[in-house]
């Protein structure tokens, strides 16, 4: 359960923004989307490998 403490006189938009940020950090939406469809273990490995290659490429480009 997400609890967002609100100070006296605090803007409701600011409290909503805090709630959204906390909700994003929990990863609930990401997990729901991943559970929506089945991915084979080999497919998960392939995607993880592609992501690692991409991140490594970005780091190399950043160093140059």
Looking at this protein, list some descriptive labels.
about 60 residues, mainly alpha, about 0% strand
In short:
This protein has 64 residues and is mostly helical.
Question: Could you characterize what this model shows?
Answer:
The chain is mostly helical and 64 residues long. The chain has one domain (12-63). The chain is 73% helix and 0% strand. It is built from 3 helices and no strands. It has helices at residues 12-26, 28-36, 41-63. The protein is flat and about 50 Å long. The mean pLDDT is 93.
Structural shape: flat
| Class of secondary structure makeup | mainly alpha
Radius of gyration over all CA atoms, rounded: 19 Å
Query: Could you tell me the strand content as a percent range?
Result: under 5%
The major β-sheet equals: none
Terminal Cα separation, in Å? Answer: 45 Å
Helix content: over 70%
Number of domains: 1
Count, helices? 3
Number of strands: 0
Low-confidence runs:
none
Order of helices and strands: HHH
Rounded mean pLDDT score:
93
Write the layout of secondary structure elements.
Blueprint: H1 12-26, H2 28-36, H3 41-63
């Amino acid at each position: 359960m997400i609890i967002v403490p609100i100070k006296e006189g605090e803007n409701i938009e600011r409290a909503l923004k805090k709630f959204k940020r906390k909700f994003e950090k929990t990863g609930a939406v990401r997990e729901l989307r991943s559970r929506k469809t089945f991915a084979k273990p080999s497919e998960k490995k392939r995607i993880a490998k592609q992501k690692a290659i991409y991140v490594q490429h970005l780091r190399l480009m950043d160093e140059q």
